Amino acid sequence: MIERIENKAFTGHAGERFLGEEVIRRVANFPELRHAWSGNDLPPHLADTAELITLFLFPPGEQGQLYKISQPFEFLPVYSSPAMRELMRTDEVCYCFGEFATGLHSLNLVQAGLTILEQCYGKEIEIMPISRLKSTNRESGQVRYFRPRMNLDYVRVNVKGKLPELSEEDYHRLVRNFYDRDLWLELLPPEKFSFEGFMFGMMTDITSEEALSQLKQKLLHREAILNLNKVKELADLLRLHFQLPELQLGLTALDYPVEFMVNHRYRIQYHLLSGSFENLADPAYEGGIYHQALESKQVVMVEDITELDTKTPLEWALLEKGFKSIIIAPLINKHERVIGLVELGSPRAYQLNAFVKSQFMELLSLFRTTLVRSREDVDNRLEAIIREKYTSLHPSVEWKFMEAAFNMLEQQSAGEEIVPEAISFSEVYPLFAQADIVSSSRLRNEAIHADLIENLEAARLVLVRALDLVSFPLVSQTVLEIDKALGITSAEFNNSHETSIVELLLHEVNPLIRLLGKELKELCPLTKEYFAGLDPKLNLIYNCRKDYEESVSRLNKELGIFFEAHDRKIQQRLPHYFEQYKTDGVEYEVYAGKSLLKHGDFSQIHLRNLRLSQLIDLSEATRMVASLQSELPRPLETAQLLFAYTSPLNISFRMDEKRFDVEGAYNIRYEILKKRIDKATINGGAERLTKAGHISIVYLHDKDEVEYNGYLDYLDTTGFIDGEPEYLELDALQSVQGLRAIRFKVNV
Amino acid sequence: MGIELKDGEISIADLEVMVSGRSGEPGANASLPYETKLYFYR
Q1: How many domains does chain A have?
Q2: Potential cystine with A715: which of A304, A401, A592, A720 (Cβ 3.0-4.6 Å)?
Q3: Tens digits of residue pLDDT in A633-668
Q4: Measured between CB atoms, which of B1, B20, B38 is closest to A198?
């Protein structure tokens, strides 16, 4: 370097000659500058001279550059430019390698090896800088990105003795195994080479380009604009890209013209006025800048909102939020309809100008693509939810529907008439089970009766008091009617009684009490107390029934969740059809078989495993019901029933009912049996088969008994059975004879 | 080595340790066994 300066001192222009002479004078004073030294620090008295030397690398006008000088392949600088020192003082600086971290620890050695290859063997390999530097200001948090560049022009390789030979093959090995430290050291031995000179590293500010590149990457991401945090990240990057720290980004999905309005369906609502205004396309804001953008489908820019002649509530709201300049860009789909808006807002007038606008326009197609994709994504999710929650299309059979739909699509493409094909599955095994609330009808009746009796008694009390105060024959007549209703016992009470008593209370008793309360001041406190005791919606006393209904609902919910969760686990091992119904308790049906599987095998082992799992689930559900009793306002018990129908049947999707049903006359027998066994009795009608806290397994054949006995052995060993199982013969049902059952008490 | 990249980022100080294999002693560039000298002249 100094050698070059000495030349410049004679041949350069006036400035170079002037500086060169000064450097030569100083070098004469400090001869150590002519020698090499291996220490890492530049002696302090040489610092000024080093700075003079840097003027030959960077002219005075560029001294604001970020650069450093260091010993060859050293990180620690012997000299840093003032700007570099300032950056290191104020910022947290780190390298970003992204995904590319391979061979990081070999980086320095590879760099040195490449320099040897270039200087001693004439092999030049260009390596692109693999990293960026990221600086974060410790106070403001402002982020900047830099591209580092190493200049090795002033590094010289010295060879000690004879230059080691390096064949083409060796060279190719090195290229193939770029980060193999041992190979570099083997082929270019450390004792043969040394380095002298200096290296200078420079950093170029690439914040704007980096932000743009990250912005593009983020916009390609599937969730780019589907949550607020992601949109905030986009806004941060836009601020970096435009170098405008106060810039705000707004983004919203909307549909214009409004007849295509579906914006409530999209989650993408992050416009600058979010929270204050729901619909920017509302006709009420016609004449404003948003409407101008929507109507013209062109980007609208306002350098100073205060100067607008016409201001709708939207412009006033923007000003209130501190925005002075704004750019509004409509995003247009392929049907030339507006599907969203992107806004840039700034608190400074004229900060958003034609220059920012032209740069922003380049990004719009990316925002458009992202918005279109996100809207499709939301639509797909909505459809998935509708399919899952509002139709009976179980995921296990979805593939079959997909295939059928695909075939219809093909027919459509070929211009043929679309004929929906039948969806059916042959040879599937049904597994039906239920946990039914015991005596639910009786309990509901009792609860209703108890509430009505309480209601009648409360009303009677008010009316009898009224008779003391006033002579009103209708009151006497009503009391008589009440007394008649009170005479109905719980055992006699039926639906017809319920209707007539409710009628009496709602249309005669309550209006009469209300009238008496108005006319007789003395009665007023009593009538108020009476009405306060009624349910505001029903206008009747609703205590016992409420307890009962809440208990049923809770029990159904818990059982539903329980069976569904257990089924999900089994689905992982063997996909199968699962359907659940809730009434007074929960019943569910499983169909399993080879035809239901798109891939994989189905065997008798799978089936037996499923049957045993169902029995275990039912036992655990019984335990769960027992443990829930203390939490229910009205304790309820369930009786469990399982139908061991071991013959396969065919099911098909019924287009009219949009659900699966069994096919063929023989198979329908299964449906009939399933419906009737619930009410089955034993011992000549003396006892119901189903019993609280018990599981009853109904079956047809001896072999079924043998199979289920095997499962019961397992349940017994695992502690699910309390006492001995009973083997029962069911009383003949309508057109069904010879059904048998095993019943056992679950050990809770 | 033994330093993990957090989100693909590494501080200059950590990179210095990782690349040079330095263990605190100045000038001890363990990962680069070549002799290096600072030299301004040429």
Answers
A1: 5
A2: A720
A3: 999 999 999 999 988 999 988 877 777 888 777 778
A4: B38
